TrEMBL record:
This is SDR family oxidoreductase. It comes from the Bacteria. GO terms for molecular function: oxidoreductase activity. Keywords: Oxidoreductase. Belongs to the short-chain dehydrogenases/reductases (SDR) family. PANTHER family: 5-KETO-D-GLUCONATE 5-REDUCTASE, ALCOHOL DEHYDROGENASE, PUTATIVE (AFU_ORTHOLOGUE AFUA_3G03445)-RELATED. InterPro entries: NAD(P)-bd_dom_sf, SDR_fam.
Length: 245
């Protein structure tokens, strides 16, 4: 299903910086009517409000707390496009003492957070019609990076959930987009050691606008991601995106 962001009400988690902030700015530039900037610290969205005025509605959310997401779904009852962008990375050696704690945290935010958002907003998106859920996954959801093993595992699980949501939401008239960036210029990329090769956040945000308009399920927005896409495309089209048997 094709979704044009023009005139839409959207919600973006982790909207205060990095890819989330870029998504807000691209959505505004392409005619979004209103955007709920969902953040853990409301004050962190002040810059967006200053730049875009009453088109931005800062709202609290914590993806580890289902009650905060459920409350948000009540507040943002007019939303038509939900972008689940917020995520965490806790880099630790695979056999290190903190690996289980890292994976527990990353699963709680990156995977269970997606499930919580999908459960809370499914009725809202279905009611409002011509709607979409956008999930920020990663190339790490397709290939393990040994120094980021717990993160890769959490994103692989999120990608699997995203595929399930595609099938679950299709009869409800809700489009699903799975976004798989490579190294993008964010604090997380710096933390992971990819700062020197990272590309602009606008590649992701503008890619999302175009992918929604095209009705795509996968988006590989940057040059590294596109290398993955060229190798993965046949499998994605013939297995992942094929009609379920």
């Amino acid at each position: 299903m094709k979704v044009d962001i023009q005139g839409k009400v959207a919600l973006v988690t982790g909207a205060n910086r990095g890819i989330g902030k870029a998504i807000v700015e691209s959505f505004i530039a392409h005619g979004a009517r209103k955007i709920y900037a969902a953040v853990r610290n409301i004050d962190s969205a002040a810059g967006l409000v200053e730049a875009h005025g009453d088109k931005i509605v800062p709202v609290y959310v914590d993806l580890t707390k289902a009650e905060s997401i459920n409350e948000l779904a009540v507040i943002a009852s007019d939303v038509q496009v939900v972008v689940n962008n917020a995520g965490v990375l806790k880099q630790t050696p695979l056999l290190g003492s903190e690996i289980e704690d890292a994976l527990t945290l990353e699963l709680s935010v990156n995977t269970f957070g997606l499930i919580r958002v999908a459960k809370a907003f499914a009725p809202v998106l279905e009611k409002n019609g011509h709607s979409a859920l956008v999930q920020l996954n990663s190339v790490a959801s397709i290939k393990n990076f040994v120094d980021l093993t717990s993160y890769s595992a959490s994103k692989a699980a999120a990608y699997s959930v995203t595929q399930g949501l595609k099938e679950t939401f299709k009869p409800r008239g809700i489009a699903v987009l799975s976004v798989h960036p490579g190294p993008i210029a964010t604090d997380m990329s710096d933390q992971a050691g990819f700062g020197e090769v990272a590309e602009p956040t606008s590649l992701v945000s503008e890619g999302i606008v175009n992918a929604l308009k095209a009705g795509s399920f996968h988006l590989f927005p940057d040059s590294v991601a596109k290398e993955f896409e060229s190798a993965y495309q046949s499998y994605a089209e013939n297995v992942i995106e094929a009609e379920a048997v």
